[in-house]
Amino acid sequence: MAFPSNCDGRVILADPSTGCTLTRATIKGMTPADFEAQDVKEVGMDRLITRAKEARVAGVIESTLETLLMSRMAPIKNALTKQSISGSDSVILPYIYMRQKRNINSNYFLVETGAANPSAGSNGIPASAWDITLKKHASPYATSLPTLERYFLPGKYIVVEWFKSDTKVAYSTQLKVISAVNADAGGVFKAKVTVEPNVSAATWAGFDATAKGPYQPATGLAYNLANSVSDYESWCYNDVAENTNKLLTFWLQTSRETHQYNDEYLKALNAALTSGYFKDFRQLPLAEQKRLQHKKFLRDWINSVFYGQRIDDNQTVEGYRSLPQVKDPANPNCTLEYKANALGFQQQLTDCTRVGDSAGAQLNLDVVAADGYDLKRAREADGTSIDTIDWMTDRWTAGNILELMQAYYKAKYGIDTTRYYQPNQALVHEKEVLMPYNIYQLPPDLGGYNMAVFHDSYFDDKLTAFVASSGGAAPAGDLGNRGRVLWGVDWSDFLLGIVASSSVQRQTNTADNLYNCIIKPNISHYMLNSVMWTSILQDPARHLIRHNFGSAPTGPTA
Fold first, then answer.
1. What is the three-class DSSP state of 244?
2. What is the CA radius of gyration of the chain?
3. Which of 454, 427, 429, 428 is nearest to 439 (CA)?
């Protein structure tokens, strides 16, 4: 029997039978049968379904990109080899979640300054430690966030996207958070975050100043990734619980989703004499807190699925035994696992030279058309007939492409006509517009296929977070260039592999000797959830990313 529709998400079915294009995707409500059809009947996957259902009942609504990702879940437990002894095969234990709400932004932070940590190399601080000062970016969608340092928990990872001012070369630098302190100045909320790069100590010692440069950003845009926490490690940091009645922002959850409270807190929430102001504005009900935490948790996942990088330079087939080890807390001599990070969509394409860096130059639609033709040929290699290639981007780039294509058709054919393009199309499910797009019919010299250009607020938010010009117009300048992307994704080829899902609930003080003579002990409750996953691109040739391009595309040539 299907779940109640108002409590469940959607499945967007994009597969080769639809020509590998979202313009023909099938959208329907998610039911248990969708998972059973994939032979996903193990306890771990059932737990994921339960969590998703619980979140939706509490009011968590998926964005379109999240729906696409959830639709691509597949079990890969049988592909895992694990031996809990030293020298075993590497077991990748990343924890990731994706972005949720689109109209609130506690996701991007502007890098104001960067400098070497004054204590680097001493007092347990790595020699590679680097201090960056972060603050709210200039986007009109940004929200002022007090106690900004609480968004950067020890052990989490961040990515800083930036570029060298002299060469305009783009860098995406992954850094691990060591600590964060308040750095507010002049009424501006700031945080000084001490980080270390994903480079081992031995490798760092051999670097000269030039080699260290890409790991020491002093500008750019930073955003959080999920942490990398084994189920055998002690890690229980709570993220911020923002009060939506006042701030209209969401939590930045960790990949090990934790929730703590005690009985006295419940009594305070439910007390008859507790004021309405306290209940509504100073404290959030537990259900509401859990909903917000889960939204943050999911948002971090989508960041990691798309942008996650290696845990360090030892994450190779040959060097996995030098990866961080997970020890038994009761026996430090017992190695339980090797830790690694799942490689995100962009990193896997980068490794296969499938990411094009325009270095600030204008996007050329003649080149984009040629890229699309190459993707068409790669996707037809398995015998599938492809007539449409999808591109995903921000709304400003999509609008510029529409204007250029209209001018192109007029110049080429000498008439004003919409015969060769279909504007204002959309993915629609139950009268809800999920993602708008335009379709352009390209002549043979440009590839002879249909080009569908989708735009989504995910890309809008990221672009405006880099830098915003006056009046909320499209961001401009070199930093704005760094935020522009064009994704050529074949969703039928992309899989979100689920290895396992774990969950535990614990209570403390129930058997504590201090409470043996107390009738009503103050019980503390802990709820811990985790998921073991990896993102899979089965054929990198079917995908392409172009980024770091200017705000005024050119072409195509008539």
1. coil
2. 24
3. 454
Task: Look up residue 188 and give its DSSP letter.
Answer: B
Whether the CB-CB separation of 304 and 57 falls below 8 Å is answered with: no
In angstroms, the Cα distances linking 509 to 367, 514, 526 are 65, 8, 12
Burial class (CB in 10 A: 0-12, 13-18, 19+), 123: exposed
Give the tokens for residue 395: 């709304």
H/E run at residue 91: none
pTM for this prediction = 0.69
How many Cβ atoms are within 10 Å of 518's Cβ, its own excluded?
10
Task: For strands 108-116 and 221-225, give the pairing.
Answer: antiparallel
Question: Using CA atoms, how far apart are residues 286 and 297, in angstroms rounded to an integer?
Answer: 16
User: Which residues make beta-bridge pairs with 508?
Assistant: 524
Residue with tokens 């259900």: 287
Decide if 175 contacts 199 (C-beta within 8 A): no
Amino acid identity, residue 431?
K
pLDDT of res. 539: 80
Domain boundaries, the chain: 108-311, 347-493+539-547
User: Rounded to an integer, what distance in angstroms lies between the CA atom of residue 493 and that of residue 379?
Assistant: 9
Distance in angstroms (rounded) separating the CA atoms of residues 422 and 376: 20
Alpha carbon 69 to chain centroid, angstroms: 11
Q: Which long-range contacts link 400-405 to residues 24+ away (Cβ below 8 Å)?
A: 400/551, 400/552, 400/553, 401/365, 401/438, 401/440, 401/453, 401/553, 402/438, 402/453, 404/365, 404/553, 404/554, 404/555, 404/556, 405/365, 405/440, 405/556
Q: Which residues of the chain have pLDDT under 70?
A: 1-14, 17-18, 26-64, 70, 73-105, 140-142, 241-291, 415-419, 427-433, 467-477, 509-516, 519
- Residue 513 DSSP label: G
CB 153 within 8 A of CB 239: yes
Q: Work out whether strand 450-455 and strand 388-393 pair parallel, antiparallel, or are unpaired.
A: parallel
Query: What are the CB-based long-range contacts (under 8 Å, 24+) for 83-88?
Result: 84/336, 84/337, 85/335, 86/335, 87/321, 88/338
Measured distance CA(25)–CA(38) in Å, rounded: 18
Which pLDDT belongs to residue 278? 45
Q: Quickly tell me which residue has 């499910």 as its tokens.
A: 429
Axis crossing angle, helix 365-379 with helix 395-413, rounded to the nearest 10? 100
Half-sphere exposure of 470 (CA within 13 A, CB side): 0
Length of the chain: 558
Contacts of 30 (CB under 8 A, 6+ apart): 3, 8, 9, 10, 11, 70
498 φ/ψ angles, rounded to the nearest 5 degrees: -110, 120
**DSSP per residue over 284-342, as a string?**
--HHHHHHHHHHHHHHHHHHHHHH---SSTT-STTTGGGS-EEEETTEEEEEEEE---P
- Measure the CA–CA gap between 95 and 530, rounded to whole angstroms: 7
Write b or e for each residue in 304-330: b if 16 or more Cβ atoms lie within 10 A of its Cβ, otherwise e.
bbbbbbbbbebbeeeebeebbebbeee
**CA distances in angstroms from 62 to 45, 65, 294, 296, 329, listed in the order given:** 19, 8, 11, 12, 37
